[in-house]
UniProtKB/TrEMBL annotation:
Residue stretches making up the Rieske domain: 29-122
Keyword annotations from UniProtKB, A to Z: 2Fe-2S, Acetylation, Iron, Iron-sulfur, Metal-binding, Phosphoprotein, Repeat
Biased composition range(s): Low complexity: 11-28
CDD domains: Rieske
Protein name stated in the entry: Rieske domain-containing protein
Gene3D superfamilies referenced in this protein's UniProt entry, alphabetically: Rieske [2Fe-2S] iron-sulphur domain
Length: 176
């Protein structure tokens, strides 16, 4: 989710360099101008030469996550945004998996008692499946800080060079 300029100032104030609201932290990567992202709604970018990231704008908020769905590499930039049990999700266009925008959790519909008719279903979490990255805005410029949590997250499977080359090759062959 988006961090405000105040967040940047606060984190800068604890370092040795003087705080500045016009300088992003060093580990961030420029994505684009906020006005362009808001206009486009979704932007994808290869960040730091190693990560395909989707940055999207919804309801005044910016979010960033791995671009390919944890399930089978679906193109999340084409997914709809819907709310499930009060949680905003991107719905993968390939097999309709739901992924929360803020945490990257996979949601599924559970049935507690299959003998009770009509069936009552509940939205439950499978845990974090999609790697979420931090978005920061400085003076109208939008940056992403990659989530470097060392623990593997399922969407990592579609961020390898091998997958990228196979995926891109497939798209080229099919004229996409
Ligand atoms: S690839 Fe996203 S739901 Fe299957």
């Amino acid at each position: 989710m988006l961090s405000s300029e105040e967040d940047i100032s606060q984190s800068s104030s604890s370092s040795l360099s003087p705080p500045s609201s016009s300088t992003p932290p060093l580990s961030t990567h420029f994505i684009g101008r906020k006005e362009d992202i808001v206009k486009a709604g979704r932007v994808t970018k290869l960040v730091n030469g190693c990560r395909d990231v989707l940055v999207l704008h919804h309801d005044g908020q910016l979010y960033a996550m791995d671009m390919r769905c944890y399930h089978a590499g679906g193109a999340l930039e084409h997914g709809d945004i819907e709310e499930f049990n009060g949680r905003l999700c991107i719905v993968c266009p390939w097999h309709k998996y739901k992924i929360t925008l803020a945490e990257g959790e996979g949601l599924y519909q559970a049935v507690d008692n299959p003998t009770v008719k009509p069936l009552r279903t509940y939205w439950r979490s499978k845990g974090v499946k999609q790697r979420i990255h931090k978005v920061t805005e400085v003076n109208g410029d939008v940056y992403v800080t990659l989530n470097d949590l060392s623990e593997a997250i399922e969407s990592d499977n579609y961020q390898t060079e091998k997958y990228r080359s196979v995926f891109l090759k497939g798209h080229t062959q099919h004229g996409k």
